[in-house]
Design a protein that fits this description.
With 428 residues, the chain is mainly alpha-helical. It contains 22 helices and no strands.
């Protein structure tokens, strides 16, 4: 289904003609399918679909927020990423083997979650959600490593865009489609159908080709203890301690305004008077397509402008978009407010997501692709995941309106770090 893209000097993916050429490669199609695999579990095991299900069957906001901590596996995936870098499974290849195994485990646990249901046994349900999150986080780690290894650096913006296109399509499936199915036939059917959709990336993983990256194979020759140490050691020695810490802090805070509000989104929509069908249509159908447009806009802008300029633009619009939710908080049940808030939020998410993926990809060493990218991706989710888990208490202590104001103001530390990094970030 794909082959490694040659990294010759003839490959120029800048400009409009380069963008079209990059999107037309076989790797782009593979990453589209793998994006579906990475995106499907996100809402189902730690995001809005799961939180809406829990609210729909009567759980309190504080409990919903705490259950979202099961998604912390996405934050901690750098802890087992060195094993993925070092070891190959005895079938399919170094990357493909892990792709297939993680997806099979994910499918199995989603089926178990659907058959059990939270009201039957909450403790077992939480364990299953945790296992699904672990499988999804592992899949994320391998897909990121595969994407970086399959093509040269100048191709990464296009691959990031097609990957995020697949990811956003998956959000339509696990959001809008799941909500429609839940409205018509219940949450059990919705989750079973989501498990079936995962067959698409599973088949793509089986028939795709292994990245031809001999440099990465050197990782397998080092001692197991060094497999955990060397990726981090290399990152800090290459950048210097001060710059490395600043880069990690910037990545960790970049998506904080958006991630703070993620867990409470579903309950907020329900509490504002919208039905599950309304949420599916506006948030998870219309909104995702707006997000796809934002993602492609981000890919084009990265090809046309400097990375650091796009980092600044993305940081600002992610913060400002949260203010749009005040329209919904002050106009409950009004469709125009719903459409306005979702438009602002999703176009900023799509744009910023591509910018962040391309930036993090540029920071990795291909000898330690899975581990270093997993570290960056984990940091990109850590602050928001932690605060998101406590978001129910914040809303109950204040209000939805103040919560959105706080989330928007959380951009200030990110801007301060970016100001310090400005002259230290190389222009492409």
């Amino acid at each position: 289904m794909t082959s490694s893209e040659p990294s010759t000097t003839d490959n120029n993916y800048k400009g409009w003609s380069g963008i079209k050429r990059a999107f037309a490669t076989p790797s782009a199609l593979t990453l589209f399918c793998l994006g579906i695999g990475s995106g499907l579990p996100f809402l189902l095991v730690g995001g809005m679909t799961l939180s809406t299900w829990l609210r729909d069957v009567g759980f309190e906001l504080s409990v919903i927020g705490l259950i979202s901590f099961a998604g912390f596996f996405y934050v901690l995936k750098f802890l087992w990423a060195p094993l993925i870098d070092k070891y190959s499974l005895p079938f399919l290849g170094r990357r493909k083997g892990w792709l297939v195994v993680s997806q099979i485990l994910l499918i199995a646990t989603l089926v178990a979650i659907a058959l059990l249901r939270p009201e039957s046994s909450l403790s077992i349900f939480i364990v299953l959600v945790g296992i699904a999150a672990f499988a999804g986080a592992t899949l994320d780690t391998v897909v990121d490593a595969y994407r970086i290894e399959i093509a040269p650096p100048e191709f990464q913006a296009a691959l990031a865009s097609t990957y995020i296109l697949g990811y956003r399509i998956a959000l339509i499936l696990s959001g809008a489609v799941a909500f429609y199915l839940a409205e018509l036939w219940g949450w059990r059917v919705a989750y079973l159908v989501m498990a079936l959709f995962l067959l698409i990336p599973l088949v793509a993983s089986i028939i795709s080709k292994e990245p031809d990256n001999q440099r990465a194979l050197a990782v397998r020759d080092i001692h197991i203890a060094d497999a955990f140490i060397k990726p981090f050691q290399e990152f800090f020695s290459r950048n210097g301690i001060l710059l490395a810490v600043a880069l990690l802090a910037f990545v960790g805070l970049f998506k904080l305004p958006d991630q703070m509000i993620g867990v409470m989104a579903g309950p907020f929509y329900l509490d504002s008077g919208y039905t599950k069908a309304d949420i599916a249509t506006v948030s998870k159908l219309f909104g995702v397509w707006v997000g796809i447009a934002g993602a492609f806009l981000g890919g084009i802008c990265i090809a046309a402008f400097s990375m650091r300029s796009m980092l600044f633009v993305a940081t600002i619009i992610v913060s400002i978009s949260n203010i749009a939710y005040l329209l919904m908080a002050n106009n409950p049940g009004q469709e125009w407010a719903f459409f306005a808030a979702i438009s602002a939020d999703n176009i900023s998410q799509g744009f910023a997501g591509v910018v962040l993926v391309a930036f993090m990809s540029s920071l990795t060493n291909q000898n330690f692709t899975a581990t270093q990218y997993a570290l960056l991706a984990s940091l990109a989710n850590l602050p928001g995941k932690f605060i998101g888990g406590l978001s129910g208490y914040i809303v109950e202590a204040t209000s939805y309106s103040w919560f959105y104001i706080y989330s928007s103001l959380s951009v200030v530390p990110t801007l301060l770090i970016l100001a310090w990094l400005w002259k230290r970030l190389q222009k492409p």
